[in-house]
Amino acid sequence: MKKIPVWMDCDTGTDDAIAILLAHALEELDLLAISTVCGNTSQENAFRNTHGVVGLTGVDYPVFRGAEKPLLQKLEFATAFHGENGLGNVELPIPEQTVFRAEKAWDALYACAAAHPHELRLVATAPLTNVATAFVKYPELPHLLHSLCLMGGSAGPGNITPAAEFNIYIDPQAAEIVFHSGVKLVMFGLDVTLQEKLVEDDLDELGASGSKAGEFAGACLRCALEGMKRYGINGVSMHDSCPVMYLAHPELFDGEEAGVVVETRGSITNGKTVTDLYSDKQFPFKNALVMLKVDAEAFIRILKKRIVSIE
Ligand code: BDR
Ligand code: CA
Q1: What is the mean pLDDT of residues 266-277?
Q2: What is the pTM of this model?
Q3: Cα angle 168, 19, 160; round to 5
Q4: pLDDT digits (tens, 9 = 90+) for 32-82
Q5: Which residues form ligand 1's pocket by a CB distance below 6 Å?
Q6: Better pLDDT: 130 or 83
Q7: How many domains does the chain have?
Q8: Is pLDDT at 181 greater than 90 in this prediction?
Q9: What is the pLDDT of residues 200-246, one digit of tens each?
Q10: Which one of 10, 125, 188, 191 would you pick to mutate in the ligand 1 pocket, going by the greatest count of ligand atoms within 8 A of its CB?
């Protein structure tokens, strides 16, 4: 079986951590590297957390540092869901032999895409600052990639504001660059990611699995679960695992081609991904496959099975 080459760009982040573990554990995928960006937490925390998560896999995946702030907007973190350190306040040790790379995320990503022309799948589970920076610095990159599968946006309501989803809201200028870049784009917004969730029993099950990765998942997701409970929701969506799962199991998802534009000026709607999915008036282009449906039962079943399979 030819494995699918994958690069992940993350603001690690509790559900980013699970998505990285899933990318490692899905045998259809060949995870090549991970880059980090500010978002759920600082660049520094995301970089350190990613090394800790990589330590759980036992494979020395290269990790590259990216942006420390959004292109124009001020820094903002999601501490209420991801804790002070980004991992629900669970501290992961960094393996002793870890090599901290100096090369910047965008340069390393471009080199990797050039080495795998039209094959590399970029998965972005964070604000799009690193991806936009790479696309501006290397204008051929959007066409050198196979595709970009991103967690972000919503055709319906938002989460960080009534209009906008967190990843797009944090850096709407970056998202605008990416949505207009011509890259083959698959969008996993709240429309689809909120259909699946891990409930308390799932976290208990992961915690009692006897696997280090399962125990970590159970512990680090508690903080996000408590955050969701404050909104009356008894479960935590694995937003960032959706694009990863899709690459190995596209049959679990359904979507529609749409025109998508990012609002960057609205005082109420800043960061909204405006789609023409439900309007008579259509944009003169279709620039994204917008995912709208997931087989939630199969998604959660495979996710749990793969996480506890990590030795
Ligand atoms: C997205 O924002 C972050 O909190 C999660 O990691 C996910 O990428 C969900 O809106
Ligand atoms: Ca994330």
Answers
A1: 97
A2: 0.98
A3: 30
A4: 999 999 999 999 999 999 999 999 999 999 999 999 999 999 999 998 888
A5: 13, 15-16, 40, 78, 81, 125, 151, 159, 165-167, 239-240
A6: 130
A7: 1
A8: yes
A9: 999 999 999 999 999 999 999 998 999 899 989 999 999 999 999 99
A10: 125
Mean pLDDT of 251-264: 98
Residues tagged active-site: 239
Q: Find the domain containing 55 and state its range.
A: 4-308
Q: What is the CATH number of the domain that holds 10?
A: 3.90.245.10
Q: Are strands 4-10 and 29-36 parallel, antiparallel or unpaired?
A: parallel
Token output for 284: 């003169």
Torsion of Cα atoms, 186 then 187 then 192 then 196, to 10°: 80
